[in-house]
Amino acid sequence: MLVARYTITSARPVTNVKLTAATVAGETTVPGTAGILTRNAGIEVNHALRRWLSGTAKFNFGYDDYVGSARKDGKPSIDRTKPCVSAVGSVRR
């Protein structure tokens, strides 16, 4: 079972912010637990520095909740992508 939600908003025409959240129910082999709930939440910011140059930064946090046990495993992550260049339809001279 997967429950996911995301929202995209634009702070400015050149900046997009994406918020994500997801919960997945699954099986586990850990003794004494009924199952596992994996929960993840994150934010992604994409900014166009120029029409042909953009940069993206992501931060995600998730944890595994073992149902029937006090065990919870956290897993933060940060992902920064290098600016990427994309082609534009016309070139001026």
Structure overview:
- With 93 residues, the protein is mainly β.
- The chain has one domain.
- The chain is 0% helix and 73% strand.
- It contains no helices and 5 strands.
- The protein has strands spanning 2-12, 15-26, 35-50, 53-67, 72-85.
- Strands 1-2-3-4-5 form a 5-stranded antiparallel β-sheet, with no helix packed on it.
- It is elongated, with a radius of gyration of 19 Å.
- It starts with a strand and ends in an 8-residue tail after the last strand.
Tell me the fraction of residues in β-strands, as a range: over 45%
Largest beta sheet: strand ordering = 1-2-3-4-5
Number of extended strands: 5
Instruction: Let me know the average pLDDT.
Output: 76
| Overall structural domain count | 1
Features:
mainly beta; 93 residues; 5 strands
Short description, anyone?
The protein is mainly β. It contains no helices and five strands.
Note the topology.
Elements: E1 2-12, E2 15-26, E3 35-50, E4 53-67, E5 72-85
Antiparallel strand pairs: 1-2, 2-3, 3-4, 4-5
